[in-house]
């Protein structure tokens, strides 16, 4: 699996709204680091937090600089998280956009999560016929028979070439019907921290490594993931 073009945004709006019920905006202690300020990134809270060891803060956050959540705001946020979904609705306002390339068997389970997600996928109907089939298009473990896979790929390529020559839809249908679940597909996904938290809690011990390892590791790479998404205390 691959996670690319990751964007995380609206921390400021989410934490401003977090203080709306009590009109306590004056108590907020979060701020942007300010890219023009003389700030030592080595002592930045985001760089020192285990939640952000994979990606530097500014690769996924605002071009104004990283949004640093203050101690008071974080304390309030975690109290709301303890209060359940309604109390922690500010998480729905922290948005994430990401390109995920994953096998179709992963996407069949991902599609369980319809609320709070938007997905645009690469089309197998329109583009499957355009490129030669190669082994790297599939998620294949070492234990799988290379001979079997080569037979499958040869068949798919035979149907693809037949369609290219004849434009007969029956060959395109044959490709669609024979396409394995391990075929990798890219989707651009938009979702939020509340949805990601739900997915993380439900899937972190899943039998498929695409969930329990790949997805979980990506979640843990997001800004303040340990403090907000993975937080359960």
Molecular structure report:
The protein has about 230 residues and is α+β, with helices and mostly antiparallel strands. The chain has two domains: about 1-120 and about 195-230, no CATH class; about 125-185. The chain is about 40% helix and about 15% strand. It contains ten helices and six strands. It has helices at about 10-20, 45-50, 70-80, 105-110, 125, 145-165, 170-180, 195-205, 210-220, 225-230, and strands spanning about 1-10, 30, 65-70, 95-105, 120, 185-190. It has a four-stranded antiparallel β-sheet. Strands 2-3 form a two-stranded antiparallel sheet. It is elongated and about 70 Å long. The relative contact order is 0.19.
| Percent helix range | 40-55%
Largest sheet: 4 strands, antiparallel
Output the number of helix runs: 10
- Roughly how many Å apart are the termini? 30 Å
Alpha carbon gyration radius: 22 Å
* Unreliable spans: 49-56
Describe this structure in a few short sentences.
This protein is of the alpha+beta class and 233 residues long. The protein contains ten helices and six strands; from the N terminus they run βαβαβαβαβαααβααα.
Topology:
Blueprint: E1 2-9, H1 11-18, E2 31-32, H2 45-48, E3 67-68, H3 71-82, E4 95-103, H4 104-110, E5 118-121, H5 124-127, H6 146-166, H7 169-178, E6 184-192, H8 193-203, H9 209-221, H10 225-229
Antiparallel strand pairs: 1-4, 2-3, 4-6, 5-6
Helix pairs in contact: 6-7
Keywords summarizing the entry:
233 residues; alpha+beta
């Amino acid at each position: 699996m691959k996670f690319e073009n990751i964007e995380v945004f609206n921390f400021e709006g989410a934490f401003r709204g977090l203080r709306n019920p009590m009109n306590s905006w004056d108590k907020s202690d979060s701020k942007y680091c300010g890219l023009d300020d003389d700030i030592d990134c080595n002592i930045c809270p985001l760089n020192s937090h285990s939640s952000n060891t994979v990606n530097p803060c500014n690769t996924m956050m605002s071009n104004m600089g990283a949004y640093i959540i203050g101690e008071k705001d974080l304390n309030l946020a975690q109290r709301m998280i303890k209060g359940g979904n309604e109390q922690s609705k500010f998480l729905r306002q922290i948005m994430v956009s990401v390109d995920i390339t994953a096998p179709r068997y992963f996407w069949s389970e991902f599609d369980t999560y319809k609320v709070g997600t938007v997905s645009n996928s690469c089309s197998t109907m329109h583009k499957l016929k355009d490129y030669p089939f190669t082994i790297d298009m599939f998620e294949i473990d070492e234990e799988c028979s290379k001979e079997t896979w080569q037979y499958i790929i040869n068949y798919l390529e035979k149907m693809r070439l037949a369609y290219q020559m004849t434009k007969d839809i029956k060959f395109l249908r044959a490709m669609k019907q024979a396409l394995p679940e391990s075929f990798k597909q890219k989707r651009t996904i938009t979702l939020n921290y509340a949805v990601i938290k739900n997915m993380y809690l439900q899937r972190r011990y899943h039998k498929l490594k695409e969930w329990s390892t790949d997805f979980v590791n990506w979640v843990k790479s997001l800004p303040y993931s340990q403090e907000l998404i993975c937080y359960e205390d």
